[in-house]
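Hi R.,

Here's the chain you asked about this morning:
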Amino acid sequence: MHTTIISATDLQGLIRSGTPLMVMDCSFDLMDPSQGRRQYASAHIPGAVYIHLDEHLSDKHGATPASGGRHPLPSRETFAERLNALGFSSGMQAVVMDRQGVNYCGRLWWMLKWCGHEAVAVLDGGLAAWQAAGGDVVSGPAPQPVPGQDFRLQPALARTVDTPTLAQHLGQPGQTVLDARAAARFRGEVEPLDLVAGHMPGALNRPFVDNIGPDGRFKPADQLRAEFQALLGARDPASVVHHCGSGVSAIPNLLGMELAGLGRTTLYPGSWSEWCNTPGMACARSQEVSAVADKQTS
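And here is the predicted structure, written out as tokens:
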């Protein structure tokens, strides 16, 4: 079972062995939500299915989403229905990938854990690593899925925190908030997506791209561990709550900590987009950014 990351050569071995698995391509672009599907159609791993951030991994129009923010989580039950519609089974190994440095496929990795499915791994290096290892690619639109009824929810293997609980413990020693957004967004100098710029008081900043090396793969475990420990200082790694803009790009930090041997930490799914739109929540160095109001569709 692969539960964190998997190399392209190991994935090739799994495919040759006939292990029940599903490769899930989560390529996406916030500013052009149709781009990922075009990238998939241009070239993808044979047999891979396409997973859309808005259509499969979010619930923007549902009556009972599991979180707030720009990409609210669907309920676990709704997500299980979507997995069954794709033909995914509880007995399968899931391998998730994208072309954006784990920015989007990490969301699916985490959501499967949240639904109790441990056998999910990120393809380290994405499609580029697959092709560099001699893997074949095919083109064309996603095939029509064959629905099944074999995915069953299990107790969650990933932890979340909601806005009231996060606010209650803000600034206390037992909670460390780690913000995965780019440094300029964290400082409040720019805000391309949300109406308020800034960050939660006391939060630490580690842009999610810092987990990826020049080769497009996760940095070695010992390097990740050293970097996270330097950032956290005397803070307990188990106290970390991850967030980003909408609960998507925070996952590379969460996965990076797990790869570093620091445990599976907590996600705040609503993230900054929920926090800054909740009345009474403190925002450090915040400012109104009305010019981007029309970008709230992402």
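One quick note: Residues 176 and 240 are 5 Å apart (CA to CA).

Cheers,
M.
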